[in-house]
Amino acid sequence: MIQGNVKNLQDGFTPAIEVPPEKIPLAFYSGLFAYSGWQFLPSFTEEIVNPARNIPLGIIISMVIITGVYILANLAYFVVLSPTELLASEAVALTFGERVMGSWSVIISVAVAFSCIGSLNGALFSFARILMVSSREGLMPQVLGMIHVHNRTPLPAAIATFPIVIGMLMVPDINTLINYLSFTRWLFISIAVAVIPYFRWKYPDIPRPFKVPIILPIIFIICCLFVVGVSIYSSPVDCGIGAGITLTGIPVYLLFVWWEKKPSWFTNAVDAVTCFLQRYLLIAPEDKRTD
């Protein structure tokens, strides 16, 4: 940019090609996916000292840093590569590295790999604790709520995420995966956030360690519903597939939660599997909290 290579930035809001309507939701979802790491932090509330202060602070600091890094990275891409080259590239960062660094472009690949490892670590850390708390509330099998006796980590919940991850890796196109799952993801996020204004109205006097101006969740809900509505209108098939994947959780709910009067052979089998996993994985129920 210092040398004046800004020709690709002069028409940033002029589309180089006509965007089909069915691609609009994917554009929204891809952008939201890139910045969605903040969602992991609230899952760590039990692990964080003074969460009322540190969780909002962590979200704000991380979002500012990530936004700055992403903007600088995209500026670098458009200074070096044309829009046509960006669209044709299967790995933009690697193409950028080959153009700028030559044989040293392997550094870009290593940096991307470390970035993926960090993202995977955060996702595994978060999803395992979601499963553990779901088990604690009686919504999942009891074994998923147990922790390792030495490391005190939710080992069975972490292992339970592996089949899901392997299934996702079998999808050849990441954009297809984002399109399938983002519809239900943002739909349920909007429903969860809708609880905030409802509770503010229903229970106005209860203590709230985390509190934001009521206008913020309302704006967030409207934006989520807009994205979901656009995706239903333009890509109903993808939304239907995503909803179908989500509905596979109904049998688990019916089996472990709704079905209360289970026969003895079923409970004995579940207990036997639980005892085997406790011995094999060195896991046990977590200590009851007294605070």
UniProtKB/TrEMBL annotation:
Topology in the lipid bilayer: Multi-pass membrane protein
One GO MF term: L-amino acid transmembrane transporter activity
GO cellular component: membrane
Keywords: Membrane, Transmembrane, Transmembrane helix
Membrane spanning stretches: 57-81, 101-132, 153-171, 183-201, 213-234, 240-259
Subcellular location: Membrane
Keyword Transport recorded: no
Protein name per UniProt: Cystine/glutamate transporter-like
Taxonomic source organism: Acanthaster planci (Crown-of-thorns starfish)
Organism classification: Eukaryota, Metazoa, Echinodermata, Eleutherozoa, Asterozoa
